[in-house]
Amino acid sequence: MYPSIHSECKRLKRGPVLGRLALGIAALMVSANFSLAQAPTTSTAGPTSGSLPSLGETSELAAAAERRIGDRIAASIYRDPDYIDDPVLADYVQGIWLPLVAAARTRGELHAELEERFAWQLFLIRDRSINAFALPGGYFGLHLGLVAAVGSPDEMAAVLGHELSHVTQRHISRMLTQQARQTPWMIAAMLLGALAAGKSGDVASAAIVGGQAVAAQNQLNFSRDMEREADRVGFGVMTDAGFESRGMTAMFEKLQQAARLNDNGSFPYLRSHPLTTERIAEAQARVQLVSAEAAKPTREKEIESGKARLLHAMMASRARILAAPGVDGLRSMVAEAQRRPVSLAHLQSPATPENVRDAGALYGGAFAAAQLRDFAVAKTLLGQLKALGTQDVPQVAGTIDLLGTEIDLLAGVVPPAASSTDISRATSRAEVLTQAQALMAANRVQAVSDRLQTWVALHPKDAMAWQLLATAYGRQNQNIRAVRADAESRAAQLDYSAALDRFKAAQGLMRSNPSGADYVEGSILDTRTRQIESLVKEQALQDKLDR
C-alpha cells in the first residue's frame, strides 16, 4: 500500500518527493480523520480488528473526497524536482499499466463510477530506491529504481497489479476510516509530527511514531488482510491482462532475497509491504493452480516473451540513467557496453537471453555516452545495437530510432530524418513528442503545431505536449495562443492558480490588440478562464473548511 508515514519521514533527507509526500499524506489524513469523525456512518457495522470488510462494502470516505485528497498530493508531486516525465519510459510503463486497468474493469474490480471519479494516473519518480505506492484518488507512484531492478514486464505487472488492487478495493479509504476511530490525541500526535518536520525530521518521526504505536496492534491485522486481498486480486488482474503468472513469484523471490541480505534503505517497498511466509506461500499456490496447459510455454509464447524482455532490458537501462547515477555511474555503463562484443550468431534470433543482455548494455551505454556529451561513442554503440538484429522487432526498432533522434538533439544536430518526417503518422506519445522536438530543430514549426493541436485535443492533460505547443506557437509569433497553451500545461499539472494567471495574461494580450483578435480563440479563453476560476475558488473554500 502507500508507504507508512513513519518510514517515509525517517527517509526525509533522501529525496524531496519522499519527505514531502509523507508529510502531505500525514496532514491530509488528519484533515480527513477529523471530517470523518463528525460524518454520519454509511454502513451499520464497521470492520473489526483482524477481519476484512466484505467486498463492495461502502466506505465512510466518499470517492469524491478521496479524489480531492489525491489531487492535492499530486499537485505537490508535479512541482517536485524528483518528478520526471520521460515520454519513452512513460510509454513503456503505460504499455504494462493500461492492460492491467482494462483487466480490472473486465473482471468487475473497477466499476464505472470509481473509474470516472478517480485519476488512474501513474507518476515516475526519479529515485534509485525500489518502491511503488498507491495514493488516494487513484494516483500511483513508481520509482525508477524499481523499473531498473525488475527482470521482466511480468514482474513489474505483479507490482502494479498489486497497487492497482489497493485502490479498486478501496483500501486507502478503509484505512482512513479505521484511523478515524482512533483516539483524538493519537491524531493530534500525527499532526504534531507533520508540523515538527519543518524544523527537524527526527522530531517529526518521533512524534508520528509515538502516536501510531498506540494503534499499531489494531492496524496490523487490518493491514495484513489488505495485503493478502491485494495479492489475490492483483494476481487475477495481471494474469487476465495477459502477463505470466510466474512474474509474481519471481518478484516475491527477489524481494525475499533482498529482505534477507539488504536493509540499507534501497528497498522501501519491503517496509511498506512486509513479506510473510504466508503471503509467499499463497502466491506460489496460486501459480500452481493455473492449469498446466495454460502455463506451458509454447514456442510462440517464448518468442513474444523474449521480445518483451528485449524491450524491458533497454528500458531498465534507461531508468538507471534517468535516476541520475552520477558521472562515475554513467562512465561505468559506457565501459560495460564497450566490453560486450556483438555476436553474429545471435542475429537469427534477436530475442535470445544473450541478446537481451547485450541490448540492455548497448542501449544504456549509448544513452549514457550522450549524457556525458561523448556523441561519437554514443553513435558507435547505437550502431552496434542496431547490428544485433533488433530492427526485426518493430517496437524495439522504434525505440532505438527514438534514441538516435535524442542523441542528435543532445548533440545540437538536426536529425537527418527531420526534413522529411511526416509527424502526422506518429501514434505513440514518445514518437509525437520526440519528433516534434526534431522538427522544431529543423524549423518545421507549422507541422509541429498542427500535429500537437490534434494531440492535445485527444489528450488534454498532457502537460509536456502543451508546453511544446506553446513553444511552437511562440516561434510563429502567435503569442496569445502560446500563452494559452502555457496556461493549459499548468492546469494539466493541477497548478490552477498559475494557470489562471496565464489565462488572464492571454486575455490581456487580446484586449491590447482588438483589431487582430481571433474571436474563436477569445471564446475559448473566456470559457477556460471561468472554469479555472471556479476550480481556484473551490480549492480555497476546501482549504478554509479543512482549517
Descriptive account of the structure:
The protein is an all-alpha fold. The protein has two domains: 276 residues, no CATH class; 117 residues, no CATH class. 69% of the residues lie in helices and 3% in strands. The chain has 25 helices and four strands. It has a four-stranded mixed sheet with strand order 1-2-4-3, with helices on both faces. β3 and β4 form a beta hairpin. α11 packs antiparallel against α13, α20 packs antiparallel against α21 and α20 runs parallel beside α22. The chain is globular and about 75 Å long. The N terminus is likely disordered.
Features:
547 residues; mainly alpha; 2 domains; 4-stranded mixed β-sheet; globular; disordered N terminus
Strand-helix topology:
Blueprint: H1 5-10, H2 16-38, H3 63-78, E1 83-84, H4 87-107, H5 112-117, E2 121-125, E3 132-135, E4 139-143, H6 144-149, H7 153-168, H8 171-180, H9 184-196, H10 201-240, H11 246-261, H12 268-272, H13 277-289, H14 292-295, H15 299-322, H16 327-339, H17 353-371, H18 375-387, H19 394-410, H20 429-441, H21 445-458, H22 463-475, H23 479-492, H24 496-512, H25 519-546
Parallel strand pairs: 2-4
Antiparallel strand pairs: 1-2, 3-4
